[in-house]
# Entry
Amino acid sequence: MDPVPKLTRADATDAVRNPLAFIAARWTPEPRTVQRAALAALVMSVVIVVTGGAVRLTGSGLGCPTWPKCTDDSLTTTSAMGVHGVIEFGNRMLTYVLCAAVGWAIIAARSEKPYRRSLTRLGWAQFWVVMSNAVLGGIVVLVGLNPYTVAAHFLLSTALIAVATVMWQRTREGDDAPRPLVGTSVRQLVWFLVAAAVLLIAVGTVVTGSGPHAGDSSEVERMPLDWETVSKLHAVLAWIVVTLTFALWFVLRAVDSPKGPLDRTRDLFLVLLGQGVIGYVQYFTDLPEALVGLHMFGSCLVWIAVLRVLLALRERPEIEVHLPDQPYAATSSSIAGPR
# Structure
């Protein structure tokens, strides 16, 4: 076993100036470690959506009535606030777990050899989306669960899932220029599918904003729309996404597509079927909280599956890079500045 190098004063100074580069100079993670770190960030981005839905469905949206403190006098929940305060404050604490997962992904990506700037940037993009959504979540509380801010909060979480999915995919690819696996017409069809999925998710937030689950037991502003009409529009969009997916599968079979795009399209179709069953059951059973929460989880899975179809349309081989034989020095030029 190699001895652990002793830290000098210069090393400590470098660590303070650029801790990520300092870690990268002393640690080279396995590719599987980087993939797992990216997957952990993706999983946590879904978990935070599901737990946020639980806050809403249990009527705990104002369990902590202010932000960033839980009350004017307390940073944390108090016994007088009951279970709603615990649920809301617990969801706030999960944001730190999400930050830790994203931080691990950034460190792993920054430490990988050879250094991949594009991968690190995807990690930092997740960090700034998380920070922005945390502030927006505070605004949601301060404005009393205004439905439009709640919708924006969910859509920003959807953007986080998109970036996390792309990063997870990129950890399993090289950095060579992307090479398409299918023709232009097929790629255009998939972009129509992505646009329809975005519209489906956006209308879903309107269903929530005008529906019966306001997010708190007190009087909360709702979108001035008939939620049943919006729900029917949501169902129509869902059928459009299903139809486009079905058509894409047939087109890929007709053009003798590689296995990757076919498999990802099949996965999307199966997820859509499950999500559709849950959607119709919850509609005809007066929106029970458990099914609504499951439908939110399904929404995340549908979005991830759509993105995986899009990303499966190309391949990015590895770029051959000859690494130096000598180990990275902690005080080398690799940590001279932030990346």
User: Anything to note?
Assistant: The CA atoms of residues 252 and 262 lie 6 Å apart. Residues 326-339 have pLDDT under 50 and may be disordered. The first strand starts at residue 179 and ends at 180. The two ends are 31 Å apart (CA to CA).
